[in-house]
Amino acid sequence: MARKVSEKTSSSVITLNNVGMTYAGSNGVRALNGINLKIEQGEFVFIVGDSGSGKSTLIKLLLRELVSTEGEIIVDGYNLNRLRHRKIPKFRRSIGVVFQDFRLLKDRNVYENVAFAQRIIQKSNKEIKRNVPSILSIVGLAGKYKAKPRHLSGGEQQRVAIARALVNKPAILLCDEPTGNLDPKNTWDIMKLLEQVNEQGTTVIVVTHNREIVNAMQKRVITLKRGVIISDEEKGVYIDED
Ligand code: ADP
């Protein structure tokens, strides 16, 4: 089976066609319904919505941790509904992921945390020695490469996580509440870093509850409610709950 579909026929890096997701189980919760979405290469997109609106389900579908029960999802040319198990690791290199709780290796220093991502994909030591310092200087941590995570601030730890997510040069950076554990100053610094990463061409998707950030940044905002997209606006704002 072909690894990729529709090479170069579209600039969309993510396409969802009529996607639905019903969780198996006694009451069969319908978490997403009739989702149609296109995200172009190089876009910066916020995904917002109340708790239970389907954001985590959407993230899990995009990462191919779940397979949609309806419709079709294409990410970076991979049709996720048809993707074979053995192709999943390769596909996952298309997406760098950043979480609210950083998820760093606590007993490894900054350099090793980032190098680890390169070792998984079997980069040579020579490449690792070139790529890791380069990405650490982009995130502003070149001077702290020997530090262990516990000696870093929350903002610095999130920078390490962003460096780790980016070092393998994914097409998409997916951030799940990236500033949820940060104070306002670090929140803004991280958002500026994500904007800078986006300006270099990476598609950035940020799931957040931070109304102030969403309203200030003037990016595309997709709002989910009870499993459907209720709004998708260029230069959007955080829509108040009714
Ligand atoms: P959000 O991330 O916006 O809070 P979720 O995607 O976690 O929303 O949840 C959407 C809906 O799907 C909710 O009704 C939730 O209870 C349900 N849900 C989420 N995960 C599961 C699961 N593993 N099994 C059954 N229902 C689930």
Architecture overview:
The chain is of the alpha/beta class and 242 residues long. The chain has a domain at 106-168. Helix content is 31%, strand content 26%. It is built from 7 helices and 10 strands. The protein has helices at 55-62, 88-92, 110-120, 125-138, 154-166, 184-199, 211-217; strands at 12-22, 30-40, 44-49, 70-75, 78-79, 95-99, 172-176, 203-207, 220-225, 228-233. A 6-stranded mixed β-sheet has the order 6-7-8-3-9-10, sandwiched between helices. A hairpin with a 2-residue loop joins strand 9 and strand 10 (228-233). Helix 5 runs parallel beside helix 6 (184-199). The model has no long low-confidence stretch (mean pLDDT 94). Bound molecules: adenosine-5'-diphosphate.
Strand arrangement across the biggest beta sheet: 6-7-8-3-9-10
Low-confidence stretches: none
Whole-angstrom Rg: 18 Å
Proportion of helical residues: 25-40%
Estimated structural class: alpha/beta
The main sheet comes to: 6 strands, mixed
**Backbone shape:** globular
Run of helices and strands: EEEHEEHEHHHEHEHEE
> Which small compounds were modeled alongside the protein?
adenosine-5'-diphosphate
